[in-house]
Amino acid sequence: ISSANVWTCCCLQWFSVPMEILEKLFLNLPPKEVVCTCRLVCRQWKEVADSEYLWTERCRRERYHLRDVSRTPKDWRLFYFLCKKRRNLLKNPREEDQLLGWKILEKVYDKSSNSYYFCKKSQLIDLEREGYNPEFMDHFQPDIKISDWYAPRWDCPSQYEICVELLNQKKKPVHTFAPETIVFGPWNIGIWHQMTHVFQNYGPGVRYIRFTHGRDKSKYWGGWYGLRITDSCVEICPSVETQ
Questions:
Q1: pTM for this one?
Q2: CATH topology for 3-85?
Q3: CA dihedral over 61, 64, 70, 75, signed as positive or negative
Q4: Cys bridge to 41: 45, 60, 190, 204, which one at CB 3.0-4.6 A?
Q5: What's the pLDDT tens digit per position in 139-159?
Q6: Which CATH number describes the domain made up of 103-237?
Q7: Where is each F-box domain found (predicted)?
C-alpha cells in the first residue's frame, strides 16, 4: 500500500472514510508519507495524522519506550521521529577504519624516544546533511548528547582532553563543552572511564557540531603507549530518554 494509492482512492470515491479505518491505513504507511502527503488531503486526514494515538501506537509497535512513564513527551510525533532517527553522527567512532572521517589537528614527534606525544583529532558534523534541517533545530532544539570512553595504560603517564562545540552557520562556536584536562600518572589499574555531556536549551542557530579529543604519549594512532579512546558518540536525542 502507498499514500499515492490511498490518495487516488479518496479522490475517486469522494466519501468520508471512518476515523478507525484511516488510523489503520496510516499505521501501515511510511511515517514520512503520513506527514508529508496524507495530512494534506483534507481536514479529517490531518486530524488523524496529527493525533496522539497514531504516534503513541507507532512508538509501541516499534518499541520506543519511555524510561520514566511519569515524564510523557508533549509531542509524540516529534518523540517518534527523534527515536527513529537517533544514531551516532560520528563516522568511524572506534577507529576501526584507521583515521577515516577524522582530521588530525596536532601531533608532536619526539626524536629522543622515537614516538609521538600529545595528539588531537577532530570531526565536523553538518546537521542539515545528517537530516536535521535548520527549522527543526531552531524550533525544537532537541538534546544533543556526547559520549567518549577512555582508559590509561597501567605503566605510562597520559592525559585526556575533549572539546565539543555547537557552531552556527559561519562555523563559529555558540556553546562549548570543554572540561579540564584529565591527567593519569604511571602504575594505575587502567580502568575505562566515560565522559558524557548533554546540550540543552541552546537556542536557535546551531548548524554544526565539532567534536575534538586528544590523548597523550601515543606512538601512533593505530596502536597505543598511553591513553586509549574508543566509542566516541554524538546523538540527537528525544527530550524523554528511551530505554
A1: 0.73
A2: Monooxygenase (1.20.1280)
A3: negative
A4: 45
A5: 878 899 999 999 987 777 788
A6: 2.60.120.260
A7: 11-58
